Amino acid sequence: MIGYLIRRFAQAILVLFIVTVITLALVHLFPGGPVRAILGPRATVAQVAYYNRLYGFDQPFYVQYVKWVGQLLQGNFGFSVKLNQSVASLIGQDLPKTIVLVALGTIVSLLFGIPLGMYQAVKRYTFGDYALTGVSFLGYATPTFFVGLLLVEWFAVDTHVFPPFAPQSSTWLGVLSQPRALVLPVAAYAFVLYALWSRYMRSSVMDNLVQDYVRTARAKGAGERRILWGHIFRNSLISIVTLLGLSLPTLVAGAIFIEVVFNYPGMGLAFYNAALNVDYEVLLGFTVLATVATILGNLLADVSYAILDPRVRYS
Amino acid sequence: MSAYIPPPQSPVPSGLAEPELARPDGAGALTAAEAAELGLAPAVRSRSLLRRGWDVFAENHLALASLDVVLLIVLFCFVGPLIYRTDQLHTNLTDVLCQPSGAHLLGCDNVGYDVLGRLMIGGQTSIEVGVAAAIVAVLFGTLYGALSGFVGGFADSLLMRLVDAGLSIPYITVLIILSVIFHPNKPVMVFVIAAFYWLGVARLVRGETLTLRTREYVQAVKVVGGGNRRAIIRHIVPNAIGTIIVQATFAVADSIIILAGLGFLGLGVQPPATDWGSMLSGGLQYLQSSQSYWWLIYPAGIAIILTCIAINFIGDALRDAFETRLQRR
Fold first, then answer.
1. What pTM was estimated for this model as a whole?
2. Which residues of chain A from 84 to 113 reach within 8 Å of chain B, CB to CB?
């Protein structure tokens, strides 16, 4: 177990190294390099040379890489010239709001996805199962932003039940203090995730229903309710925890689209604006942060799986 | 893993195999005959595999209906413009946001393009890019995954860590950065989407290869002196073809949705070209106004959902078809 953890950790470090090299290399792919992105096409050769020397772009790639990683480790994610703000402060300002959105959306989707997925597995091949399968397929095939558009059209433009915009506050507490405005973004976000959890839960519970331990529980006289919630639910939860750790890229992608549709002032919207302005420092900083989060998520998923499921033995 | 240290040594057996194939007729013919026999066996089986797969597929009415839907959408997009002729190159400011009418069956968008005609043109882009990206991603991912799984050992670990690294960058951020870097048009979008999508395919095919390479018929290729390339291309890939086809089907739907997402953000193909997602990005602005312009969002949105649901149903049916093949064997 300890050996496995060490090996898994070493792998994560290696992956982190490759990822940071790729990300920094991406910056050099910008048309004309990062200099032109900042100074524009009309900058003179002398200006470009001066800027390159000032920011160290005239040095070999590996020198730039070491310096950049050194800065990252000290918490310096760069400085956005276009926003006149350090990327770290931008992250500090926007990340909590995105976490609020992602957490609420994930919780809501799990609250629907887990019980409905279990219902589908228990009542498999009935009308209810087919209807809910249809809903999941719809969730898979519908782009996140289109769900958002439809909700705005139905509940904000046509009926005025909810405001069409997300809360426009600079702090996460301010965002939470406007729950009415949060409903549509969270609902749109949760719908797409719901498809993921419910499909997974359905097949996981169906696998578990034929396991020996279920038969044993039945033989010992446990009621269906107890079997479902006391035995199968707890076992399926293990894989949901793992899936949650592995789904971070999906969560990030969903957040970007929802934030753009609802103008939610989080990291996704900031990233999108940075992409439109070619604000490479912000793009770089956010990508590295999201990637580290993903790698940690995968690591936690593997480790929690190893701890929660005693059958799993890693050699 | 230690049981499979031999693969790094495999250049030696295959190096021995080359002169054997080039030897005088007798030995050469024998090897060729054996190879033909070995090569033929999976070929015959794969043909019957496809036919049996089709039989199972044809029993699935939902899948057949989905196939019809996809064919109709393809006809609509590629033959439609020949019948319903509209100007999709020049904006027309007198028709901006006009209501659906006899002249414009689905109205006009925010710069005066006919929406029904735009739906056809946009559909061409969505389908072309979706299919092309899926093909490129699946071809590359298959070869990469099969090679990695077959070679094993240190090279396998290294190749898979590269895939891990690629998969741990949230794909949407890479896609956005890549479409900022390159001026987005159809071929660039194919490359951008495939550049990320092949990773998942590679991991899947590698898993399949790990189980296939221990099978007797793959071991037999080595015994008769076949090289790694032959084993991978003639034996491993054809036997993983079920998994690959299913994955390719889902890849088309996923690529269409990814392209739509980038188009929606304004980072997809640029006007006058369009795709279903780009058509929706115009809808967002006009949604917030007091009057609802439903024709800006429903046609393109429904087109995406319909296409992707149909393709996903086909993929599911294909998976069933190929899985029954495994059960019957």
1. 0.83
2. none
